[in-house]
Amino acid sequence: ELVISSIGKTGVTKFENFQYKEIDVNFTPKLKKYSLETKIDKNSVIIIPSDLKVKAQYLTLAKRVSAKLGGIAIIDDKIACVKDAPMLQNKYANSNVVVLGNMNNNRAFWPAYTRKLAVSDAFFPGGKGYEVRTAVNVLSNGKNHLIIGGSTFDGVAKGVEKFLADIAKNN
């Protein structure tokens, strides 16, 4: 007899074609191959928050990043994402993208955040803290997200400075 506690009713559960299968605990599955290179090209975009209270500030940062990355386009998350959802439009999902902000102000941040590949939200890294990282294969399609995040605009601005300094150092 099975008791479904959330509903409080009892019933009978029947198992049909139930099989035990021995598994080899020493088996190692094939490792997935991930791109170790994030190519920024003409299809790549920088995605900033669409909230009018902060959009102009983020646009200033994005222009600086764009200038260092060959002048790639800058769009906001309202354009980049499916209407009323934290999912990238196919056009952007199938490209390597740069995402500025955090999961609270930029819907394009959500795919990496919910897969634990990015961490910036309203609480972490806090204050003027920031993260600069590559979120690899976020949508399981071989495309990466360059994340420049922070809990506050000042944190993201510091992240942009770090990102630009790293580019300058490696060129």
Describe the structure.
There is one protein chain. This protein is of the alpha/beta class and 171 residues long. It is globular. The protein has helices spanning 55-68, 77-80, 90-93, 110-114, 153-170; strands at residues 2-4, 9-11, 45-48, 73-76, 97-101, 131-135, 145-149. α1 packs parallel to α5 (153-170). The strands form two sheets. Strands 4-3-5-7-6 form a five-stranded mixed beta sheet. It has a two-stranded antiparallel ribbon with strand order 1-2. The model is unreliable at 1-6 (pLDDT under 50). The relative contact order is 0.14.
Q: Short description, anyone?
A:
The protein has 171 residues and is an alpha/beta fold. Helices cover 26% and strands 17% of the residues.
Global mean pLDDT: 89
Poorly predicted ranges = 1-6
Shape by Cα distribution: globular
The secondary-structure class comes to alpha/beta
Count of beta strands:
7
Order of helical and strand elements: EEEHEHHEHEEH
Rg from Cα: 21 Å
Major β-sheet annotation: 5 strands, mixed
Helix-residue proportion: 25-40%
Terminal CA distance reads 68 Å
Strand content: 15-25%
Lateral strand order in the biggest sheet = 4-3-5-7-6
| Number of helices, where a helix is a run of at least 4 consecutive DSSP H or I residues | 5
Primary descriptors:
alpha/beta; disordered N terminus; 5-stranded mixed sheet; 5 helices; globular; two-stranded antiparallel ribbon; 171 residues
List the helices and strands and how they pair.
Elements: E1 2-4, E2 9-11, E3 45-48, H1 55-68, E4 73-76, H2 77-80, H3 90-93, E5 97-101, H4 110-114, E6 131-135, E7 145-149, H5 153-170
Parallel strand pairs: 3-4, 3-5, 5-7
Antiparallel strand pairs: 1-2, 6-7
Helix pairs in contact: 1-5
